[in-house]
Structure formats: structure tokens, C-alpha cells
Design goal:
single chain, mainly beta, 9-stranded parallel β-sheet
């Protein structure tokens, strides 16, 4: 999970904890509690118990909890099987694991050299 110098964990918000206000970090942010506000960091990871009401902007965003807000992942956005996103996503690479929920619109940002974005994984389950 932490392989690069930029992945150094700078902020942890544990389960049953709550912050109201914006969070900016020069490294990785891990949230498993509640945050009412916007989050900005190199990497943002939302644990299974997390709830965010606000926007997230980071290089990589991994959603395991619930967010009501817009996501801007300059490199990638991943919604895990326990993730629930209500809001728009802008990113280069989008991954949604079976069980993950996404209600919103997505826009695939592209590099100047590339012509398309990349969907790594998209699994839909019939009910």
C-alpha cells in the first residue's frame, strides 16, 4: 500500500471520529471516520466505515466507504466492493469492483500524447 516516498501516511482519521472542515496533506490521507469538508492529498484512502460529505482531489483515490461529493483523481480512482460514490468523477483511470456503487457522471481525462482514458475494471451485476 505504501511504496513511494509520497505515499508516506500523513493523516489518519479513525473510525467513530469526526472532522468538520477542509483537509490538505502533502502525503497520504486515510479516513475511516466522518469528514464534512473537502480533502486534498497525494493519495486519499477511504476505509469501509468512512463517510465524506465534500469533494476529494488527489493523485490516487481509493473508496471503501461512502462519499457524497465530486472526485478528481489526477491518476486513478478506485471504488472497492464496499465503496459508494454519489457524485461526479474526473480521472485518467477508473476501476469499479463488483459490489461498488457509483451514481454520477464520469469524465476520463487524457494525457496530451494519449487519445483516450483507460477503464481498468468495470463489473456489473444483474439483479
Amino acid at each position: 500500500m505504501f511504496h513511494k516516498k509520497a505515499d508516506k501516511l500523513h493523516l489518519v482519521l479513525g473510525e467513530n471520529s469526526k472532522i468538520t472542515g477542509n483537509v490538505e496533506s502533502p502525503g497520504t490521507v486515510f479516513i475511516d471516520g466522518t469528514l464534512i469538508g473537502n480533502v486534498e492529498g497525494v493519495k486519499v484512502i477511504l476505509g469501509e466505515h468512512s463517510y465524506i460529505s465534500g469533494n476529494i482531489k488527489a493523485g490516487a483515490i481509493i473508496i471503501g466507504g461512502k462519499i457524497d461529493g465530486h472526485l478528481t483523481g489526477t491518476e486513478k480512482v478506485e471504488i472497492t466492493a464496499t465503496g459508494h460514490v454519489t457524485g461526479d468523477i474526473t480521472t485518467k483511470t477508473l476501476s469499479i469492483t463488483e459490489g461498488g456503487i457509483f451514481n454520477g457522471a464520469s469524465q476520463m481525462e487524457v494525457d496530451a500524447e494519449k487519445t483516450t482514458g483507460k477503464i481498468v475494471e468495470f463489473l456489473a451485476k444483474e439483479q
